[in-house]
Specification:
- By secondary structure, this protein is of the alpha+beta class.
- The protein is built from four helices and seven strands.
- It has a single domain (about 5-165), classed as Gcn5-related N-acetyltransferase (GNAT) (Aminopeptidase), CATH 3.40.630.
- The chain is globular.
């Protein structure tokens, strides 16, 4: 069964917050220590959408089983054509095509908005599932920051991957 991927709404926030809370609590895919509550997650969603970025969810059987969004890579004006992606799949639902469905749609949404580069910032170099997912979609490894974060009583590396969107860096961007 393929997931249904659609635009997220505020009604999805409880499921999104629960998925993210498990990531914060149990894994090193995010470097936050304390899981944000629903109000904070709602505010984050609003900020992403207000910035003109996509925020999507994947559903199976009417249940949200993953989410993804793009956001500003950096705040300086020259970076305005670059997005950073975030993809999260509910615990126990990995390896079922949910992450791929989300990333495929996120890339398409970002290209449609005129963004030219997408960066993945992957917590922990040992996160081979995320690295392989991004490689399948044309991301290439552009660097690793060794021992840059401390979580769950250990130092963690951070992997940077990148892919072009649309014309990438082969043409001048439109005014924006």
């Amino acid at each position: 069964m393929s997931p249904i991927v659609r635009n997220a709404s505020e009604a999805d926030v409880p499921a999104i917050a629960a998925i993210y809370a498990a990531e914060v609590r149990d894994f090193v895919n995010t470097y936050e220590y304390d899981a944000p509550d629903e109000a904070e997650m709602r505010g984050r969603m609003r900020n992403v959408l207000a910035g003109g970025y996509p925020y999507i969810v994947a559903e199976l059987g009417g249940q949200v089983v993953g989410y993804a969004y793009a956001s500003s890579f950096r705040s300086r004006a020259a970076y305005r054509w670059v997005v950073e992606n975030s993809v999260y799949v509910a615990a126990g639902r990995q390896g079922k095509g949910i992450g791929a469905a989300l990333l495929r749609k996120l890339i398409a949404e970002c290209e449609a908005r005129g963004f030219r580069q997408m960066v993945a910032v992957i917590g922990e170099a040992g996160n081979t599932a995320s690295i392989r997912l991004h490689e399948r979609f044309g991301f290439r490894h552009v660097g690793t920051f060794p021992g840059i974060a401390w979580k769950h009583d250990r130092w963690l590396d951070t992997v940077f991957m990148q892919r072009a969107l649309g014309k990438g860096d082969t043409a001048e961007p439109s005014v924006g």
